[in-house]
Structure formats: structure tokens, C-alpha cells
User: Which sequence fits this backbone?
């Protein structure tokens, strides 16, 4: 199974970026082999509707679950419609996130956070 | 004659000036005060017009409605939209009407003609008369935010 993590970089050393809509990359990690694929997040450069663009891109990657810090209501609606499991992890390396996932230490995200939280609550 | 009262900054006295201008001029002839504040129109709080609520005009913007029978989830509408108002995933199409800017582009690019524009209410325009204004009726027209937001 492959897990998607919102990250600042393109390998397992990269740290998790807690902002789903505005993270620079989605890191797709194969749980067995630990092979990674990186996809740039189209929401990172969007003027508005970042969460929507990010969620739409993510659902096409074939991930079995998503691990991030928080996501807003619009992104959450799309991820929920796609039936994707979402879990929360702290800002640690992607490698540590995978370890935490395997140990069952990650809490699920069952409700969306506030809108625009990745922009400190501001729209601009 | 039309006098516009405006400011680039809130709290500078637009309502104060406009309301007092209207009151000062009401003996001069028919006065119409248009409160064009789309967020918090408050001239009506001072002048207390008799608002004929059944005459309220609905203000709407066009937003997309998808015909699920015709849609084949190609995603062209979502790719076109600059505002993220549409998302197409394997499970279906989601619309985010509050993000839509009403450009109609999604309907134009849909190869299956599966999108039509329908009105979404974003506000109302109310108008009413003011009693006791000596030369004929004064009217006050104001825009107000909609409970449908």
C-alpha cells in the first residue's frame, strides 16, 4: 500500500508540512519497499481554492491514506467523498512519520480544521 | 443631480455625511438615498424607512449545476476554473459555489454540455419610503447581505 505525506521536500528525510492545501509536495511512499514518488502540490501556488486543488490532485495518486497536520473544510469534503483515510502527524521527518504509522501511533482526522489555517487564518 | 459619498477607509463618516446630506436636502425636492454598502448598509438604521419587504429584489450570481447523466468526469471544467469552484474526482464532481466568480467558462468548455448556470442568491435590494418628508416622497434604497450566504 502507498501512503501520501504532505512534505517540504522530496525524500524520506524531508519534514512533514502540516498544511495540506499549501504544502509544497505530496510524498507517496510504498510501505513495503519505502520507495518514494514526489508530486508537486498545485494548491501551493494557487491564489484561492488551494485546498480544493490539492485534494483533487491527491485523490488521483492512488494513495491508501493521507498523513498531514491539518486540512480545511473544502479539502476535507473532497477527501471524504473520495473515501480517503486521513491521519495527523507532528512535524517530523517522513521516515519517522512512516514509523509512527506502522506502530499505530497516528490519530485519525475525522473533522476538518478551520479554513485558511495554513495562511495563519488570513486570506492573503 | 447625483452626489456620491465614498471613502477608501471604513469609519470615516460616509453614512454620517450621506444621511445628513439627504436630511438637509429633503425640502428641496424628491430625494433618493441609495445605500450601496454590500456588507453592512446602515443608513436605514438612521432614517428608518418604511421598507416594503415584499418588494425586495433578489441579487443573484450564476453558478454551475452539473447534469450527472451527461457528465463523464473528464475534468475539463475543473481544469478551466481559476478559482477552484469545481473538483472532479473518480467518485464524482463537487461544486463549491462560494468560490465561483460566475464567468460561465465551465459551461463553455464542457464537451458534453453537461453544465448549466443557475442563479445563487447573494443578497437583496430593499426599498422604502420616508414619512414626513415635505416635498413629495423621499425614497431610500439599500442593499443588504443575504441570509443565504
Assistant:
Amino acid at each position: 500500500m502507498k501512503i501520501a505525506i504532505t512534505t517540504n521536500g522530496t525524500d524520506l528525510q524531508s519534514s512533514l508540512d502540516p498544511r495540506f492545501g499549501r504544502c509544497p509536495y505530496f510524498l507517496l511512499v510504498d510501505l513495503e519497499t519505502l520507495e518514494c514518488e514526489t508530486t508537486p502540490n498545485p494548491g501551493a501556488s494557487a491564489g484561492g481554492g488551494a485546498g480544493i486543488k490539492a485534494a483533487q490532485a491527491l485523490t488521483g495518486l492512488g494513495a491508501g491514506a493521507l498523513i498531514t497536520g491539518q486540512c480545511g473544510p473544502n479539502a476535507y469534503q473532497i477527501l471524504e467523498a473520495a473515501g480517503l483515510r486521513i491521519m495527523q502527524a507532528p512535524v517530523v521527518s517522513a521516515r519517522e512519520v512512516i514509523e509512527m504509522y506502522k506502530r499505530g501511533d497516528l490519530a485519525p482526522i475525522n473533522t476538518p480544521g478551520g479554513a485558511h489555517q495554513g495562511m495563519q487564518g488570513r486570506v492573503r | 443631480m447625483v452626489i456620491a459619498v465614498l471613502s477608501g477607509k471604513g469609519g470615516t463618516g460616509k453614512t454620517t455625511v450621506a444621511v445628513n446630506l439627504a436630511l438637509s436636502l429633503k425640502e428641496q425636492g424628491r430625494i433618493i438615498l441609495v445605500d450601496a454598502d454590500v456588507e453592512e448598509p446602515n443608513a436605514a438604521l438612521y432614517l428608518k424607512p418604511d421598507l416594503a419587504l415584499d418588494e425586495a429584489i433578489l441579487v443573484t450570481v450564476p453558478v454551475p449545476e452539473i447534469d450527472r447523466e451527461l457528465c463523464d468526469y473528464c475534468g475539463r471544467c475543473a481544469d478551466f476554473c481559476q478559482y477552484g469552484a469545481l473538483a472532479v474526482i473518480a467518485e464524482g464532481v463537487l461544486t463549491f459555489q462560494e468560490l465561483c466568480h460566475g464567468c460561465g467558462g465551465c459551461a463553455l468548455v464542457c464537451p458534453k454540455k453537461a453544465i448549466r448556470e443557475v442563479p445563487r442568491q447573494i443578497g437583496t435590494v430593499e426599498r422604502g419610503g420616508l414619512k414626513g418628508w415635505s416635498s413629495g416622497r423621499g425614497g431610500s434604497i439599500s442593499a443588504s447581505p443575504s441570509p443565504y450566504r
Notes: Chain A has a mean pLDDT of 93.
